Amino acid sequence: MAEDDEKPVFFFDIDNCLYSKSLDIHRMMAELIDKFFEDHLSLSREDANELHYRYYREYGLAIEGLVRHHKVDALEYNSKVDDALPLENVIKPNPELRQLIQDIDTSKVRLWLFTNAYITHGKRVVKLLQIDDLFEGITFCDYSSDKFFCKPHAEMYDKAMQEAGIKSNEKCYFVDDSYINCKAADARGWKTAHLLDPADPEPTQQASRYQIRGLMDLRNIFPEVFKDPSSA
Ligand SMILES: [Mg+2]
């Protein structure tokens, strides 16, 4: 297909984006990650926590540092951390979110999930939210591969575009709660919305052209991808 004819793709991050950061899942996850570092690297809780955040800052994902420097099995990590989270107690179906996504006109834009988590976790979250049927596909961080990439590395955005079947950066929409992920997407020309929680402090410099305080604001910043209200 010629690039001119390509239908735009809207990429959605999953964690702390499709569900609220206030659910505190990142804290539950951080505790399991610390525990994993502690058990596998024989570290004190304090050293485990420090290393976890150093890898998170350096690589965007704690697991990338573990695999690079400690030959940790990423799939074992996934089963002890992401897949071990008691999400069923926390993530509930969200009709408002479902309506928002359903109001996007799929004759104008295609919907694609784009996560740094492994496929098992990504699918589990969207299923619990009861929005799993609304997306055409998902690009995830492939922990089973010898060399895997995650956002904000360029290879990961390339992978998402390839899997979603789109060539033009200018036709990619994106929403993510991560500052560095949004900055990288914005730099390559994606129409990027950085999602901040209402309680988050204002960044000194915006990560991307658009910054929103709730997913519902997508209607205001990207009206061109939504169904025409007059024809509803
Ligand atoms: Mg996120």
TrEMBL record:
GO terms for molecular function: nucleotidase activity. GO terms for biological process: nucleotide catabolic process; pyrimidine nucleobase metabolic process. Pfam families: Hydrolase (PF00702). It comes from the Eukaryota. InterPro entries: HAD-like_sf, HAD-SF_hydro_IA, HAD_sf, Pyr-5-nucltdase, SSM1_domain. Keywords: Hydrolase. SUPFAM superfamilies: HAD-like (SSF56784). The keyword Cell membrane does not apply. NCBIfam families: HAD-SF-IA-v3, Pyr-5-nucltdase. This is Haloacid dehalogenase-like hydrolase-domain-containing protein.
